[in-house]
Design brief:
This protein is α/β, with parallel strands linked by helices. It is built from 5 helices and 5 strands; from the N terminus they run βαβαβαβααβ. α3 packs parallel to α5. The chain starts with a strand and ends with a strand.
């Protein structure tokens, strides 16, 4: 990407509810003249007991399938001339989003947030962690 970039974080499991994230990211990109990188993070349970029982080729196939699904999801939007790309990452969601924003020198991260609950207040959702720790501005978009 040659222009300044916006990182739009989506969850392919909840892609229907993340449509508003994409719409806001496209509007922000058009307004500020930025490109968009649409990112999905495959949560990696590195310290999970079950992780050792998952064959490595299956883990790789998840990333291949996610990349295909993310590209198809991105293609479903009217980009209105905004340059865009997609990226699948693996790891702890908020950590990977912050790292990727830093690598891209992103101007904004656009991330969705669900209705807060008591458990979110105790452990903090990914959106809250990204907004607290990112080195760029973060737009947290609530569902309509």
């Amino acid at each position: 990407m040659t222009k300044s970039c916006i990182l739009a974080a989506v969850d392919l499991v909840h892609k229907d509810s993340d449509t508003h994230v994409m719409e806001e990211a496209i509007l922000l990109a058009r307004t500020h003249g930025h490109d968009i990188e649409v990112v999905f993070v495959v949560p990696d349970q590195v310290y999970s007991y079950a992780q050792e029982y998952i064959p490595s080729d299956m883990r790789q196939q998840v990333e291949v399938d996610a990349a295909r699904d993310l590209a198809a999801y991105a293609d479903s939007f009217d980009w209105q001339g905004v340059g865009h790309s997609t990226k699948v990452l693996r790891g702890v969601v908020y950590e990977k989003l912050i790292e990727r924003a830093d690598v891209l020198k992103a101007k904004f991260v656009v991330v969705g947030a669900s209705k807060p609950s008591v458990k979110d207040l105790l452990i903090g959702p990914n959106a809250a962690r990204v907004s607290r720790n990112a080195s760029c501005s973060v737009l947290v978009v609530r569902p309509q």
